[in-house]
Amino acid sequence: MRDAVRPSAALVLRVWSESPGRAGFRARVTAARDLTGTDGTLLVTADPDDVLATVRDWLDDFLDLSDASG
Fold it and tell me: Is 7:33 a contact under the CB 8 Å cutoff?
């Protein structure tokens, strides 16, 4: 009997500064909630709170998917 397929996902977070201080903050988030498909999301922002919310949403979605498959 084969092992059950377990969900997997990936998130890439890139941050950089275009100028000194918080005003120069930039981020790009690329995420795939299911590595078996081609879905992905992209966020480009200058707001650290947007990054945190996106990562939290992505992680919550993954955990929901893991619960549903387990």
Answer: no
